[in-house]
Write a structure and sequence with these properties.
By secondary structure, the chain is an all-alpha fold. About 70% of the residues lie in helices and about 0% in strands. The N and C termini lie far apart (about 90 Å).
Length: about 325
């Protein structure tokens, strides 16, 4: 009886979150996500990288909505609506940002060499982005059901189970993507391609990252500083989103009344903090700057005229040798 009386004295926020969200923390995250979203919008328009609008920018908008709702809960502890808003938006928001990672990786694979990737670059986006959309829809449906529970524990649990399914599917996608990325990096460093390069890769495109190996008479990938930076950023952003996905999976598995979901520090660090690191990664290593055509480093570039002519001449020589053997 005493426990029931104590529970009835809790505010709406304390009953839902297990704590009252910190007002200063919510303001800090709102400022961080607001700045990143503005930067991404400006950078996408300036560099004409339009696919960042429905990915990185959309992620920022979702996080702003979620953290705005948490600030609302901090200011009005008896309001029930902000909890339902933030539980859905903070779970769904990072999903579009993950899609940006898939697109960036496909661009890197095409630039460095599709023969080093188990899946050719032109198929990566077609495979992973739809998977990301499926995860987004499942999480959205689960979040909608949980939000409409209105105190009905059974409905809330059903929504949480569906969200858990979406997060679990997304987790599996991240794991497979991480394996693909790691395998690609190892094969590039060791020059151990999955298959022979296409002849078009030897033609000497200004944006190509190939160099000719005279002993082997074939194209070998050479990572420029820009490409190495993008790959490092890709590995970092994927890692932090992986950590966040692990946290969310454990959180929902633990249940609405579990210790994990009722501990604010876990949420601030393992969800908000991880997404901040991921979204700012692409502000600093922006695809519009680091993946632009012909955008190699000046000191390492293959794009100057003399090197380009040498590569073309070498490619022509190899073609002549192949024809003479036939």
């Amino acid at each position: 009886m005493r426990a029931d009386d104590d529970e009835s004295l809790l505010s709406e926020a304390e009953g839902s979150y297990g704590y009252i969200p910190s007002k200063p923390i919510a303001i800090i995250f709102l400022a961080l996500f607001g700045l990143s979203t503005l930067l991404h919008t400006g950078q996408a328009i300036y560099h004409r990288v339009w696919w960042l609008l429905p990915t990185a920018v959309l992620c920022g908008i979702g996080e702003l909505t979620g953290w705005g709702a948490r600030l609302w809960s901090a200011l009005d502890t008896n309001a029930s609506m902000p909890f339902t808003i933030q539980i859905s938006t903070t779970i769904i928001a990072p999903t579009p940002l993950l899609a940006a990672s898939f697109i960036i990786f496909s661009r890197v694979v095409n630039e460095v060499g599709a023969h080093y990737s188990l899946i050719p670059g032109r198929y990566i986006g077609w495979i992973f982005v739809p998977c990301d959309l499926i995860a987004l829809v499942v999480q959205g449906v689960g979040g909608g059901i949980a939000s409409s529970a209105d105190g009905d524990r059974e409905t809330a649990d059903r929504g949480a189970t569906i969200m858990l399914g979406g997060i679990g599917f997304q987790f599996a996608v991240i794991v497979f993507f991480s394996i693909l990325l790691t395998d690609f990096l190892i094969r590039v460093v060791r020059d151990a391609p999955w298959r022979a390069p296409q002849m078009q890769a030897l033609s000497g495109s200004p944006s190509s990252s190939f160099t000719m190996t005279h002993k082997e008479g074939r194209a070998r990938a050479r990572l420029t500083r820009r490409t190495r930076t993008v790959l490092a950023a890709l590995a970092f952003s994927t890692t932090v989103l992986f950590i966040r996905s692990v946290y969310r999976t454990i959180e929902l598995t633990d249940g609405w009344n579990g210790r994990i979901i009722h501990t604010e520090l876990y949420f601030n660090v393992l969800d908000g903090g991880m997404v901040v690191l991921a979204i700012y990664t692409w502000n600093f290593v922006h695809p519009g700057m680091f993946l632009r055509a012909g955008g190699e480093d000046d000191e390492e570039s293959n794009g100057n005229a003399s090197d380009l002519e040498k590569r073309r001449a070498r490619a022509a020589e190899l073609r002549e040798q192949e024809q003479s053997l036939l």
